[in-house]
Design a protein that fits this description.
The protein has 4 helices and 3 strands, in the order βββαααα. By secondary structure, the protein is an alpha+beta fold. A hairpin with a 5-residue loop joins β2 and β3.
Length: about 170
């Protein structure tokens, strides 16, 4: 059933027949034979404009559902309140992974060592380090420390620096 406009304040009802004109129609076959009758509601707005709404075959049920007095055409219910939208709940920040203070040394080239870079990525410092192993360890570490996953920018920067430092040493 069609919903009446929210601002409509008076209805008149008409029982009408329609001819769809479709050649494939089982009822009229494209002739002037009409379907129905169907109920239509003609309404007016407070600003003076008018409109039409399809009701269907059961006028009484439609009037009861939408709070319209069938005899007078006046709405008997208070205007429907606007829909309220609840804002999404803010995401709780995840626990930031902690890291030792000594890991900050990887950010400075003169204090960075392969042993420290391996420790940051969770690798055993055994030369030579396979490139695939370094890449896999980097990906696992960055997933845990990524800022979008609850990590910190500092931790992600340290992991990126460790990976950049170890890359030339891996084979």
């Amino acid at each position: 059933m069609a919903q009446p406009p929210k601002t409509a304040h008076h209805f008149t009802f008409a029982h009408e027949k329609i001819a769809c004109g479709k050649s494939s129609c089982r009822t009229c076959g494209g002739s002037s034979f009409e379907h129905g009758p169907y109920w239509y509601g003609y309404y007016s707005h407070p600003n003076g404009s008018t409109g039409k709404v399809y009701i269907g075959k059961n006028l009484s049920e439609w009037c009861r559902q939408w709070g319209i007095d069938r005899a007078t055409g006046n709405t008997t219910l208070a205007p429907r309140p606007p829909k309220t939208v609840t804002p999404p709940k803010p995401k709780k920040p995840g626990k930031k992974p902690s890291f030792p203070a000594t890991w900050g040394a990887i950010l400075k080239r003169n204090t960075a060592t392969p042993k420290l870079a391996c420790e940051i990525l969770g690798l055993k410092p055994k030369p030579p380090i396979p490139a695939a192993e370094v890449k896999a360890a980097y990906r696992a570490a960055i997933v845990r420390a990524h800022p979008d996953k609850g990590g910190s920018n500092e931790h992600a920067a340290i992991i990126n620096a460790a990976y950049a430092f170890l890359k030339p040493f891996s084979k």
